Amino acid sequence: MRTHARVVVIGGGVVGASVLYHLAKAGWRDVVLVERDELTSGSTWHAAGGMHTLNGDPNVAKLQEYTIKLYAEIEAASGQSCGVHITGGVNLAGTPERMDFLRLARARARYLGLAMEIISVDEAQNLFPLLDKRYFVGALYNPLEGHVDPAGVTNAYAKAARNLGADVYRFTRVVELIARTDAAWDVVTDKGTIRAEHIVNAGGLWAREVGRMAGVELPVLAMEHQYVITGEVPEVVASPSEMLHVIDFEGEIYMRQEGRGMLIGTYEKAGVPWSERDTPWTFTHELLPPDLDRIAPSLEVGFRHFPALERAGIKRVINGPFTFAPDGNPLIGPIRGLSNFWVACGVMAGFSQGGGVGLALANWMIDGDPGFDVWAMDVARFGDWASPAYTNAKVRENYSRRFRIRFPNEELPAARALRTTPVYDTLKGRGAVFGAAFGLEHALWFAPAGMEPREDVTYRRSNAHGPVGEECRAVRVAVGLLEIATFARYEVAGRDAGTWLSRMLAGRLPRAGRIGLAPMLNDKGKLIGDFTVANAGGDRYWVFGSGIAEQYHRRWLDAHLPAHGVGIRSLADEWMGFAVAGPRSRELLTRLSPADLSAEAMPFLSFRAIEVAGMAAHVGRISFTGELGYEIWVPSQSQVALHDALVDAGADLGLRHFGARALHSLRLEKSFGNWAREYRPIYGPAEAGLDRFVDWTKADFIGLPAIVQGRSERPPRRLCTFVVDAADADAIGDEPISRGGEVVGWVTSGGYGHCVGESIALGYVQASVVDEAQAFEIEILGERRRAVRCARPLYDPDGLKMRG
Ligand SMILES: Cc1cc2nc3c(=O)[nH]c(=O)nc-3n(C[C@H](O)[C@H](O)[C@H](O)COP(=O)(O)OP(=O)(O)OC[C@H]3O[C@@H](n4cnc5c(N)ncnc54)[C@H](O)[C@@H]3O)c2cc1C
User: Alpha carbon of 490 to those of 294, 308, 504, 531: distances in Å?
Assistant: First the structure.
C-alpha cells in the first residue's frame, strides 16, 4: 500500500468510484480509493439502477444528462459492461396541477437542450400498454431514461480509473483522519497510514462517520427503501421491445422491466429512517427485513392504475438503506474550516447523478471551481443549524414527498420555527405568514385582519396576491416596515481589514461613514457574492450579504483570511434589524432619533451610529425597494422594543408591515438582482450588469486578471428585464426565453409588479440578440407568452426616489 497520495477517496460505491475516475481522467496522478469491503458494499449493490434526467433544479438535471451519457465512455475505457438499457420513460400525471408541473419541467428541459415532450394519455398508453387510462390526464415523455447494472457501473468507473493509473484498495477501512499543520491529512486505515494532500468523503451510508473523524456532523440520513419484483406479466413477455420506465406520481411509484416481470419501487408516506445516529461498521452487502404493509397503500394504487401487475403478484421484496440530504440533493464540495477536505455524499440517485457529481468535484479540486452551477448541490447550503434532529425531520419529509409537487410558493412544514428572531411572536400576532431561509423564519407577507394567515399553494397567483399588493403600495406611497434578519452580516475588523477586504472584493471600499456596493469574484472572474459594505470607522467594516449564502461566503472568506491583522465574525446573533422604506421613512425616523437625518447630513449610502428610540443603533441609508429607505440595526435584545417604537411612531404615517413577497415585487420593478437567482458563479459581472460596481482603478483584487482579459470581449449574455403578457400565472424562474421559436435564454426571477401593474421577469439572454428585437416569448405553464424587453427599470429608472 502507498504511504503518500495526492488524493484518498474514501468509499467505493458508485460515487467514490466516479470521483476517482474523473480525477484520473483529468490527469491527476497518485489518486487512491480506499474501500472497507468489496466495491459497492454500501447502498450501491442493491439499487434498482434506474436513471432519468428529471430534476426540480435544471442544473442538476443537466448533470443527470451528463451521467447517463457517460456510460458509453466508461464502458469503452474499462471494457466492463454497465448493463445500460435506455428505454425512454413516461412520467404520468393524474391531475391538472401535475400537468402544470410536467409542462414546467418540459420548458426547463427546453433551455437545457434536453428533449422531453408532453404527450396525451392515448400516446402514453401506446408506449406503456399496462396503464389504465381512466387514472391519468397526460404525461411527459423523456427519451433519456432507463436503467443500468449498479455493480457494472461501479466496476467500470474503478477499472477505467485504474487504467489511467489510479489505485483501488479494497478491504481497507479508514479508522481515523488526522489533520496535519501543512494542510495535508494522515489517513489511518486498518492496513497502514497514507499521507494525503486531499481527502474525499464518499462514504455513502457511513458519510456521517467519516465526517465525524474530521469533526464534522454532515446533514445526511439513510432511509429504508423498498422495491418489489412481480411475477411474470404476459404483456411484458409478449412485448416486442423492453418496457419503458414509468413514474406514476399519484401512485408515488416508479417502475421498469425486470426479466419477465416488472420492478416497482415506492416512496411511501410513512418512510422509516435507518441507523438514525450511527451506521454499524459490520453492515455489508446486507438487506433489511421487508415490510410490505408499509408500502401496501402505494402498491394498491399501483395495482389499480396498472391492473396486469396485480394479476402477476409479488415474487420478491428488496429493502435496503440509502442516504439523503435534507432537501434530497447531493452534498458536494469543500467543508468550511477544513483544508482539502471534500465531500461527495447524500447522493440519493447515484445512477442519474454519480457521473455529474464526480465531474463537478474533480473540477473543483483541480481548478478551484466546479465548472458549472452546483449551487443546489453545494454542501455550504446548510449551516451548523442543520443538526441531526433537523436532518431527521427534513429527510423524512423529503422522502415522503419524493413524487409530490413542490409548488413554487410552498413552504414545507417539517423542522419549522427552528431558528427565530426575537420579534417572531410579535410578527406572528400581526398575521405574518412565514417562510424559512437558511433555517431562519422570516415573514413572507401579512394576512390582513379577518384573513387566515395561510397561503394556498399553486403555480398561479395565490391568495397572497391582494395583500402583497397592498404592502407594495404602502411602501411606494407611505412607509413600510420589513424585518431584515435574512441579510447575513459580518464585521471585518483589524489593522489590515481595509487592505484585505479590498483584495477580496471587486468594488471600491467606502470611506468612513459611507456604504459601497461590491461584487465578490473568484479567480475566474465569476460572481461569488454581491455585498453591501459599510465603513464603520476605525478599521471596522460591516459587510452585508445574502443570508442563504452565509456558509458559502464564510468558507471562501475564512480560507483567504491571513493569520494576523484582520478578523471576521458573524453579527447574525448579536444584531437584528428592520428596513423602513417609503417616502415617509425619513419622517418616521426623525420622530425617533435626535440625529440630523436631512438629505445633506445623511445622504444616500451613508452609515451612522446614531440613537433610535433611545437605543444605540447603526443605520444605513440604503434601499432594496427603490424608495427612500433606511436599514436600522440594534442589539438583539432591543429588537422588539425597536419594532414597537417604529410601529407606534409610524401609525399616522400609514406604516404597514411588508414581507419577502412584497420585497421581491418591488425589486423586480427596479430590476435589482438577487443572490442565487441573478447572481451566481456561472455569470461574470459584465453579464450581470454589476461591472459598474467594479473598481477598475484598483491594482489588485481576486478575479481582476480574468475580467481584465475579458473586458475587450462582449459578454456572451446579458441580464435583461421583461414585461410579460401573463394571465394568472407569472414566471417563477428557469423558464425558457425564446425569439422567433429559438431558445435564446432563461428566466432567473419573475413575479408581478404590483405598483407598475405588470408581470415582470428577469433573465439572461444571448448578447447577440439583445438589441436586435424587443419582442421575445417566455413559456409559462406550457404557453408561450409575449415578453417585451425593457432597457430600463420599470419603476423610477433614474433612481431619484431612493436618492431623494
Ligand atoms: C433499494 C434501493 C433502490 C435504489 N434504486 C436506485 C435507482 O433506481 N437509481 C438510483 O440512481 N439510485 C438508486 N438507489 C440509490 C443508490 O443506491 C445510491 O444513490 C448510491 O448507492 C449512493 O452511492 P454512494 O457511493 O454514495 O454510497 P454507498 O454505496 O453507500 O458507498 C459508500 C462506500 O463507502 C465505503 N466506506 C464507508 N466508510 C468507509 C471507511 N471508513 N473506509 C473505507 N470505506 C468506507 C462503504 O463500504 C461503501 O462501499 C437505490 C437504493 C436502494 C437502497
Answer: 48, 61, 14, 11
pLDDT tops 70 at residue 711: yes
Cell of 657: 408591515
Q: What is the mean pLDDT of residues 249-256?
A: 94
Give me 653's grid cell.
404615517
d(CA 400, CA 721): 38
User: Which residues face 518 on adjacent strands?
Assistant: 531
Strand-pair partners of 793: none
Residue with cell 416486442: 240
The verdict on the CB of residue 494 being under 6 Å from ligand 1 is no
Identify which of 484, 567, 560, 491 has the alpha carbon closest to the alpha carbon of residue 520.
560
CA end-to-end span of the chain: 71
* Ligand 1 pocket, residue 174 CB under 6 Å: yes
Q: Average pLDDT of 178-198?
A: 97
Q: How far is CA 172 from CA 37, 158, 469, in A?
A: 7, 16, 62
Q: Per residue in 793-803, pLDDT tens?
A: 999 999 999 99
Sheet of 85-86, strand order: 50-51, 146-147, 85-86
Strand ranges across the sheet with 515-521? 515-521, 527-537, 540-546, 487-493, 567-570
Rounded to 5°, angle at Cα 131 from 127 and 137: 90
Residue recorded with cell 474530521: 214
- Pairwise CA distance, residues 547 & 545, whole Å: 6
Q: Strand 331-334 to strand 261-266: parallel, antiparallel, or no bridges (unpaired)?
A: unpaired
2: its cell numbers = 502507498
Q: Copy the grid coordinates of residue 121.
A: 394519455
Cell of 545: 450579504
Residue corresponding to grid cell 399588493? 469
The answer to whether 129 and 804 are in contact (CB under 8 A) is: no
- Establish how many alpha carbons lie within 13 A of residue 423's alpha carbon, considering only the half-sphere containing its beta carbon: 30
Q: For the residues of 144-157, what is the DSSP string, one character each? A: S-EE--HHHHHHHH
Q: Can you spell out the DSSP letters for 399-466?
A: HHTTTS---TT----TT-SSB--TTHHHHHHTTEEEEEETTEEEEEEEPPTTS-S-PPP-SS--TTHH
Average pLDDT of the segment spanning 163-186: 97
pLDDT at 772 over 70: no
Grid coordinates given for 734: 428557469
Q: Tell me if 251 CB under 6 Å of ligand 1.
A: no
- Cβ of residue 189 lying under 6 Å from some atom of ligand 1: no
Asked if 166 and 33 count as a contact pair (C-beta separation under 8 A), the reply is yes
The rounded distance, in Å, linking the Cα atoms of 159 and 33 is 12
> Could you count the other beta carbons within 10 Å of the beta carbon of residue 648?
13
CA 39 remoteness from chain centre: 30
Question: 636 vs 543, 594, 611, 659, CA distance in Å?
Answer: 18, 22, 15, 20
pLDDT digits (tens, 9 = 90+) for 456-514: 999 999 999 999 999 999 999 999 999 999 999 999 999 999 999 999 999 999 999 99
User: Can you read off the three cell numbers belonging to residue 781?
Assistant: 405553464
Tell whether the torsion through CA atoms of 209, 213, 215 and 216 is positive or negative.
Answer: negative
Angstrom distance (rounded) from CA 504 to CA 528: 11
Beta strands in 585-628 (DSSP E): 607-612, 615-620
Lookup result for grid cell 403578457 = 725
Which protein residue's CA is at the shortest distance from atom 35 of ligand 1? 11
194 beta partners = 187
- Nearest atom (ligand 1) to Cα of 37: 47
Q: Is the Cα dihedral 91, 96, 97, 103 positive or negative?
A: positive
Mutate to test the pocket of ligand 1, among 46, 64, 206 (most ligand atoms within 8 A of CB): 206
Ligand 1 atom with the shortest distance to the CA of 347: 19
Global pTM reads: 0.97
Give the count of beta carbons closer than 10 Å to the beta carbon of residue 27.
9
Question: Do residues 205 and 42 touch, judged by C-beta distance below 8 A?
Answer: yes
